[in-house]
Design a protein that fits this description.
Strand content: 25-35%
Helix content: 25-40%
Order of helices and strands: EHEHEEH
CATH superfamily: RRM (RNA recognition motif) domain
Radius of gyration: 11 Å
Number of helices: 3
Number of domains: 1
CATH class: Alpha Beta
Largest sheet: 4 strands, antiparallel
Oligomer: single chain
Shape: globular
């Protein structure tokens, strides 16, 4: 699966306020697929995954559990 992190102002705000990361994912990817991939790649626990389709692109909003700060994952990705 192809995960592309989104680094907009809104994405950075969600990292700080809601412990949530935003990724652009493949259209056919399910929420379960996204959750498993994030947990495997970044060694974190995912609380919830929400998806949204805009302009023929699918975005996954991945909320991490409180013991895994999203800011740490964002730093690894070079977003912040």
């Amino acid at each position: 699966m192809n995960l592309r992190p989104i680094t907009s102002e809104k994405a950075v705000k969600l990292i700080d306020l809601e412990n949530t990361l935003i990724f652009e994912v493949e259209r056919r990817a399910t929420k379960t697929d996204v959750k498993k991939e994030i947990e495997k790649v970044f060694s974190v626990k995912v609380e919830k995954v929400r998806t949204s389709i805009k302009s023929n692109k699918k975005f996954a909003f991945v909320k991490l559990i409180k013991s895994n700060p999203a800011i740490d994952v964002a730093t690894k990705l070079g977003m912040i």
